[in-house]
Amino acid sequence: MSFSQIGVVGLGIMGAGIVEVFARAEYQVFGVAESALAVDAGKSNLAKSLARAVSKGKLSQEQSDEITARVTFGEDFALLADCDLVIEAAPEILSLKLDIFSKLDAAVKPSGILATNTSSLSVTEIANATSRPAKVVGMHFFNPAPVQKFVEVISTNHSDGEVVSQIVEIGNSLGKHLARISDQPGFIVNKLLLRYLNHAVQILDSGQASKEQMDAAMRELSGYPMGPCELLDLIGIDTCVEILKTIHADTQLEIDEPATGMVKLVSAGNKGRKSGSGFYDYSEKLEIPTDPNQDIKDQVHNDLLIAYLGDCIAMAATGYATKADIDSGMKLGCGLPEGPFEVIASLGIEKVRAAQVELSERTGIATYQPLSV
Ligand SMILES: NC(=O)c1ccc[n+]([C@@H]2O[C@H](COP(=O)([O-])OP(=O)(O)OC[C@H]3O[C@@H](n4cnc5c(N)ncnc54)[C@H](O)[C@@H]3O)[C@@H](O)[C@H]2O)c1
């Protein structure tokens, strides 16, 4: 099957980015959202992203115009009838996704593949909302979709192997690095990333460090492009809370329960950049001051890093994902300068294990203990 027409449902942070990715790769793209307002917001998201690329000299105005001309926007799912592949990027709410997939099943030609960009929800349940579960997969892009090179391809027990191979092929045609994973809450990257982000807000809630100290610690001491509170604001705190709820329902671990600080912000409508404020205020250009308190920065950096490295070791040791896929996911999906196994190799595994024991004993949290395998 050759793919030429691609549909995208939901035109927010991710949907608009996915539209751009496919239009840049010369596919004909159809972007659908639930209202005229949401469609306009999607158009404006795409226009702003292209204008940024032009102003940085990464695209010419002519290329930007060509990309825009490849996209048709609308509110009606009938627009997606002839699409070879439709990717859903609506909010992380299972009931909403089930409803969208049953509508897509009715609207899209029978040969069309339906994919969800869900970060954590069951792709199997989503597939079961259609009459074509063999043709339903997860295709999980990272934020910003035009920049991050990693895509997780999620298959279910129903997925047709040929369909999964076609998704891998189409992902390669976009210049992305793909990792295949079975249907598990949070897949590879979000299972690790969200626990790390939640841990940061738990530290914030406990009063041990400020958001500025934590963000400065991870940027300065690990070279991360953003600290955890900045990243939560970029992803969308509402989305992060929903992802954590799904992960927590699976693990039942207290450390995966969405931290109070995040839940409160979402209840107040502060969802992050997309709503104008979250942990930080985006009404003006954000400049996070560096924090002079080195001891606090060292402590939170140690705690966040060691807990995260421990999770990576456990994920690989249990056969959930390979070390290579974990390293690629964290570098190419989140923009981290090094993969966790590269960090472990340079620190030395014994040092990491000793730090895990120290963290677990100091905090009283057994989950931080090294895995005994
Ligand atoms: N934000 C991230 O960093 C990120 C990264 C990877 C994956 N994801 C996943 O991508 C999906 C979308 O997340 P987002 O951050 O783009 O959310 P968002 O809130 O920015 O955008 C959601 C979009 O869906 C639209 N929408 C709402 N109801 C709809 C409906 N009934 N029909 C069609 N469209 C509808 C909204 O108008 C909006 O355009 C979620 O499943 C999320 O978990 C998010």
Category by helix and strand content: alpha/beta
- According to CATH, the fold-level topology of the largest domain is N-(1-d-carboxylethyl)-l-norvaline Dehydrogenase, domain 2
| Average pLDDT taken over every residue | 96
Uncertain residue ranges? none
Strand line-up of the largest beta sheet: 3-2-1-4-5-6-7-8
Q: What is the annotated CATH architecture of the largest domain?
A: Orthogonal Bundle
State the helix count: 15
- CATH hierarchy, class of the largest domain: Mainly Alpha
Measured by DSSP, the beta-strand proportion falls in 5-15%
Number of strands: 8
How far from one another are the termini? 45 Å
Task: Give an overview in words.
The chain has an 8-stranded mixed sheet with strand order 3-2-1-4-5-6-7-8, sandwiched between helices. By secondary structure, it is of the alpha/beta class. The mean pLDDT is 96. It has 2 domains: 5-182, Rossmann fold (3-Layer(aba) Sandwich), CATH 3.40.50; 189-368, N-(1-d-carboxylethyl)-l-norvaline Dehydrogenase, domain 2 (Orthogonal Bundle). It is globular, with a radius of gyration of 21 Å. Helix 1 links the parallel strand 1 and strand 2 (28-32). The protein has helices spanning 13-24, 36-55, 61-69, 94-107, 123-128, 161-173, 189-206, 211-222, 228-235, 237-251, 260-267, 294-317, 323-333, 340-347, 349-363; strands spanning 5-9, 28-32, 71-74, 85-88, 113-116, 136-141, 150-155, 177-182. Helices cover 52% and strands 11% of the residues. It has 15 helices and 8 strands. The structure holds nicotinamide-adenine-dinucleotide. Nicotinamide-adenine-dinucleotide (NAD) binds at residues 9-15, 33-34, 38, 42, 89-92, 96, 100, 117-119, 140-143, 235-236, 239, 274.
